[in-house]
Structure formats: structure tokens, C-alpha cells
Amino acid sequence: MSCASWCSGWLRHACCLCICFLGWCLETGAETLHWGPFHATLGLQAGVSYTDNVKTSQTNEQGDIGISFGPVVNAGLSLPIITSGREELMTVSTSLGFSYKRYLRRGQASNFNSPIGFTLTLPLHVQEWLVNVNDSFRFTNDPLESALAVSVTTVEQYSNTASISGMRRFGRFALTLAAQRSDKWAPSMPSTEESINSFSITPSVFLQENFSVFWANSIGFVFPEDLKTRSNGINMTSTIGVAGQITPVLSGSIGVGYVHSEFDSIVTATGPQPGGKTDGVSANVGLSYAHPLRPNTAHSISLTYSPGVTATLNNSNFQTSYGGAYTIAHRLNAYLTLSPQVSWMRTISEGGLSHSEMDMMAVQIALSRSFGSHLSGTINCRHQETSGQTSYKVNIISLQLNYMF
User: Fold this and answer.
1) CA–CA distance, 263 with 278 (Å, rounded to integer)
2) What is the spatial distance between Cα 144 and Cα 148, in angstroms, rounded to a whole number?
3) What sign has the CA pseudo-torsion 304, 307, 311, 314?
4) Is the pTM of this model over 0.85?
5) 252 forms bridges with which residues in the sheet?
6) pLDDT tens track, the chain, 405 positions
7) Whole-angstrom Cα distance, residue 45 to residue 23?
8) CA 255: distance to chain centroid?
């Protein structure tokens, strides 16, 4: 089949789907759907991209053009709940899309877009405590989001985090107690699958209403699924820092702490292997800067040094990870925004069967344009390369259009 005839057939199918979906959405109203506490906004997305290394291969780089099309759904549910004479509002929100994607060389591939998110939030007042119950699910399949992906076009990763926290104010002082359960599944990378149960206690002092000094203490119990390459462990952290509106032009958080991680021995066919342990200083910075005399430009920077992290390298019990990212969002005018970003992350295995290292560097620039209240578009150019356990370079140029009804 010639390229012209293939494109003609694909476009006919795409146009038919677009017309049917468009007619149905226009018939439902401006917000698309609004039934009592449930509301949803529907839309269409379409895009074209060129990738010079579509399988993130180390040696056999292949370029390809991808064309995608499909619907988008942003939905929410708000339910009033009466507790202790108070009316609380439980909210559920989700964002997902389904795209029909075809590469010119590889043929068709129908897959969910990445990421897909689902969040449930339930605030409650119990005596003098503000209690929050939260559950968040996320699905990604972009191989560039994982340092482990190589020679593949998609990498399915699922994660779910359920938590309950309670905060009580004592004037300027506050106390927060929290418990959290995190689960990660990755069918193509079983050694990274794990569950973590963690508990924390955080006293803080509010120097101003939106600025505080905190002391966060937590303990986490790590249970990997693959006990042939990893082992159970414990992770304890204590961090002192500040958070909130630091100055009139600077907001975010800065923290410095101490980490202790210890893991059991790994039982292998050749005998037990040491699981490893570490003690070290941790640090994290996440800041946003916007000068009042330059309101169209915002700067964001994040820096981190984290010993004792898990599930970032194959066959490794725990790792030390450090790096940073710098982003600028500059509004050229009321409709056009330019957003360059540079990031780098280094990960070193500290325990387990693997003793590898990984560097990941990415540079990208995006130009976003709003065409009224419904249509928006983005042109994005990205260069990413990794070296270490897996090594590759990839360049992507993409155009994405979104229309929300």
C-alpha cells in the first residue's frame, strides 16, 4: 500500500470519528456534562511527532513519524458529607485520554495516553483535627519517564498512593500525623515493583500564616515483589526546613535532613548476598521566583540529594539519587508562552545485586499557543540522553492540538 493511499484511509476513519464525537459533545452543552454533583469536560486531541530513536535503542537507532488522534476526558465528582454536624465536601477527579496512534514504519498501535490520573480527596473535621483522606492513581507509558527503558516504544508503569493525615493547630504551632501506602507495578520491569508503608510526624511553627518552619520525621517499610534480586528494608528520615511564601517574590520549600536505610540479605542461588545499608545527609530545594516588575516571567528550580531511594535501577535494593531542574515560563503575549527547561539526574546503586550508575540529562523547549477559550496547541522540541545501566540518545519534535468543548 502506498503512503498516499494509507494516509487517505486513515484520515477518512479519523474524520468520521471526529464528526461523531463532535456532534455528540455539542449536543450536551457548554460544560459537556453536568449531572448534579458530577461534571465532565470532553475534548479532542490530535498530534504529530518525529522521533529519531523511536525504540530508545542503544545501537540500532530508527527514526519514525507518529500520528495520534483521540478523545480527552476531565471529570470530577463533589459529594457533601455530614460529619459531627459539619458539612464536608468529598471530591473525586480524573483525567484521561485514549489515542489511536500510528507510526509510518511500524503500523498502527492503539494505546492510552500518558499520563492518566485519578485522585480522591475527603477532608474531615474530627474534634480539633483536620483529617484528609486521599488516594491517587497514576499510569504512564512514556519510556522517556523511566531511566530503565531501552529498546522499547512504551513502558507501562502503574502507581497508587493512599494516605490519611491529621493536622491540629495550637496557635502558631501545628502538629501533623500521617500514614501512607504506596504501590508500584511495572510488568516489563518486575525488579522495580514494590510496596511501601510509611508513617510520619511533623511539628511545625507558622512564623506567618503562609510561611512555616517544620521538622519532618518518617519511617518507611519497603516490600519489593521480586525477592530474588531485592530484599525487604526500612528507611528512616528526619528533615528540618522551611515552606511557604519565603519572600514576597520567592515561594517553595528548602529542607536538610538525615537518612538511615537498612535492607535484609538477598537469598540467591549461590547463597545470601548483603542487602546493604546507608547513613547520610539529604537535601531538597523547590523554589519559584516571580518578580513583580516582570510578571510575565516565572522561574522554577528544584535540587535534590536523596540517599536511600528505591525502584530507580534494576536489581538494586536502594540508590542514592541527586540532580536538579530549571524551568522558565515566559509569556510573550496574552496567547503565547515560551517554556525552556533543562534537567539532570544521577543515580548510583548502593546495595543489592547491581552496582551500576545512571545519568539522565534532558533539554527541551515548548511554545504554547491559545486560540480562544477552546483550542490550544503546543510545539515541543526535546533532547534526552542516558548513560550507564542503559544508554541512548533521542530527539523528539512534536505538535499537539487540544480542543475542549
Assistant:
1) 9
2) 9
3) positive
4) no
5) 244, 287
6) 444 344 444 444 544 544 454 454 444 444 567 777 888 888 888 999 999 988 778 888 888 888 888 888 888 888 776 665 666 667 878 776 667 777 787 654 555 555 677 888 888 888 889 999 999 988 877 665 555 555 555 677 889 999 999 999 999 999 999 999 999 998 877 888 899 999 999 999 999 989 999 999 999 999 998 888 888 999 999 999 999 999 989 999 999 999 999 988 887 777 787 778 889 999 999 999 988 778 899 999 999 999 888 877 777 778 889 999 999 999 999 999 999 999 999 988 887 776 778 899 999 999 999 998 889 999 999 999 988 867 889 999 999 999 988
7) 16
8) 21
3-state secondary structure 242-309: EEEEEECCEEEEEEEEEEEEEECCEEECCEEECCCEEEEEEEEEEEEECCCCCCCEEEEEEEEEEEEE
Rounded to whole angstroms, how far apart are CA atoms 353 and 263? Answer: 12
Alpha carbon distance, N-terminus to C-terminus of the chain: 36
What length does the chain have?
A: 405
